[in-house]
């Protein structure tokens, strides 16, 4: 951070960046940061996109990130090495004039995680599942979120009705030549399928957009240090989050989507493996809650509602897995 950077050396952002996500992450991790941020990009050449961040107090920060998309070289854009040496020189009292570095994190935009070794890829996906299972077992009533969602009942019906209203408006939007966006194909058939296959109500905190690229991983260790992008969060059906996370397993690799549907040798765990892990983690978490109740260690007044829940969860997991394997 510095107070005087020549803003003329910057331009409007050329390589897009999600400013809202950036603000949420920095606000959670930098004590003196005051929103909103003004974001500009440095003009002069650099192998890694470099941005100037100016907060509401006129403090200046520099953000360095890897280029978007799949990288041709795994070593040419190693901002983590840059962070490590700057941090060491700064904290080691070396008298070497280097800028202070504040944060280093990893956000993976490609669900295949091809920049990582196979074993680490698997661990990252397992962590994503474990973190989601933990989120879904949070007692939202005990932390004051009972009224956070409009209603815990008929979640999918309410979601469908809401999306139908949105798509009706969007379909009527016209461009400058009068061409309409038009309706979604096969929408009626899909709605009918949901009506025929109505899902039994379950209730938990729902993130609303739970994906690999909304998780922040530790810079060197294999662990999730943050979940971001909570604006769609509510109280609803937990399987909607699981579906969001696993969606790309069920679509083809077309356009901007990295679909995994037709890939035989997956570079990451299979969808059945992840579903099985999710079911197991839910059961283990519920079993742990039951054990704490037995030992009178539970802090929640509503905890007894979950007593013994791990057994039916395991039976459901077993039945579900038999149906898909």
From TrEMBL:
Domain of life: Eukaryota
UniProt cross-references to CDD domains, sorted A to Z: ACAD10_11_N-like
Domain Aminoglycoside phosphotransferase: 38-257
Name used for this protein in its record: 7724_t:CDS:1
Native organism: Diversispora eburnea
